[in-house]
Amino acid sequence: MTDTTELNALEGRLTEQVEAAADLKALDDIRVSALGKKGEVSLMMRELGRMTPEQRQVMGPALNGLKDRLGALIDARRDALENAALDAALASERVDVTLPAPREPKGSLHPVSQVMEELAVIFADMGFAVAEGPDVEDDFHNFTALNFPPDHPARDTHDTFFMQAPEGQLPKVLRTHTSPVQIRTMMSGKPPIRIIAPGRVYRNDWDQTHTPMFHQVEGLVIDRETHMGHLKGCLIDFIAAFFETDQVEARFRPHHFPFTEPSAEMDVRYERVGDAVKVGSGDRWMEILGCGMVHPNVIRACGLDPDEYQGFAFGMGVDRLAMLKYGMSDLRPFFEPDPRWLAHYGFSPLLQANLATGLS
Ligand code: PHE
Q: Which among 103, 320, 313 is positioned nearest to 221, based on CA atoms?
């Protein structure tokens, strides 16, 4: 074909076909038969090469024009057909706004997060701020400044995870407790100090009540006239608030920690009610936390004068507190991602401790 009359006839025919295409499938068939690889227009474009220069000068632009117009026409027809399909769907489908909405699974706080928030709220009421430190600690903050001598057996009994160290350097550790935050706080600020430090800690342990990573909350108070009475009062008030009772009976058993002197473990009277514990009654004693008056060597290691400043510290396992309060018997599911387990213990996003409004 070498003249434009025929081309005009072809354009007329294709235009009619496009305009008559009844649906998207028919339209696409037309597109392929005209503009596809072996389509009529494409084949004619291929013939351009065999024409004389004069013919090509006429037919080249004519064919390109046809191709562009046809492409635009097909696009417009496709839009029209798609709109028509949508209009038809809108006209024929009805939305029943009275149907109940499908239930979305609701997220909720993990018990550990919830207990951490509860603790932060309770201690905030007593004037404590929240402090944080790194999970990967150095020997100084995790042990030395806390009065662990270099060969102290506690360095092994902690079953510490050591990091690889460059030649000649002490290895860093995954912190074995939150007590290094005491050191960081005393070295970076001035007394009076009242902080709690919640966070992850690591020990090489794995059974029903031990996981290699678990959570602690540390507490530290440093001031000029802090004494053991403050420690006891503060911790008894805390237990009352956390276990929601005003009948706390506590016992402070002598203990040993390198970083406190004297040191104690605090037990509270309790009884079991189902899986949960009821604090304040019963004839059993449960160990809740470790505590003591901050050792003068620790205060000195942080650059403070122990004759001027004293204070107390305490540390407790958050996961264990959650288990006790909410009657959970195995620690391991705490760190396995099964939301049914959370739901079983009734953790709801609506029943949370809130830093602004207190416990609800
Ligand atoms: N760091 C101690 C532990 O992990 C707990 C503790 C903290 C004891 C503060 C006394 C004072 O067991």
A: 313
Domain boundary (92, 127, 153) is at: 92
Protein residue with least CA distance to atom 10, ligand 1: 291
Closest CA relative to residue 279, chosen from 317, 309, 307, 241? 241
280: left (phi over 0), alpha (psi -120 to 50) or beta: left
- In ligand 1, the atom with minimum distance to the C-alpha of 179 is 1
pTM score of the predicted model: 0.69
Domain with 76, as residue range(s), is 5-92
- Measured in angstroms, how far is the CA atom of residue 250 from the centroid of ligand 1? 18
Q: What are the φ and ψ backbone dihedral angles of 256, each rounded to 5 degrees?
A: -135, 125
Structure token digits, residue 15: 């235009």
Residue to mutate (ligand 1; options 216, 257, 260, 319; most atoms within 8 A of CB): 257
Q: What single letter denotes the amino acid at residue 217?
A: V
- Closest-lying ligand 1 atom to the alpha carbon of residue 219: 9
pLDDT band at 153 (very low <50, low <70, confident <90, very high): low
- pLDDT band at 154; cut points 50, 70, 90: low
71 in the same domain as 174: no
- Let me know if residue 98 belongs to a domain: no
Closest ligand 1 atom to Cα of 177: 4
Structure tokens at 153: 């057996």
Query: What are the pocket residues of ligand 1 if the criterion is a CB atom closer than 6 Å to any ligand atom?
Result: 177, 179, 218, 257, 260, 290-292, 313-315
pLDDT tens, position by position, 288-341: 999 999 999 999 999 999 999 999 999 999 998 888 888 877 788 888 877 777
Pocket test for ligand 1, best of 179, 203, 235 (most atoms within 8 A of CB): 179
Coil/strand/helix, residue 350: coil
State how far the Cα of 311 lies from the Cα of 221, in Å rounded to an integer: 5
Position 354 in a domain? no
For residues 248 and 174, membership in a common domain is answered with: yes
For residue 163, the 8-state DSSP code is P
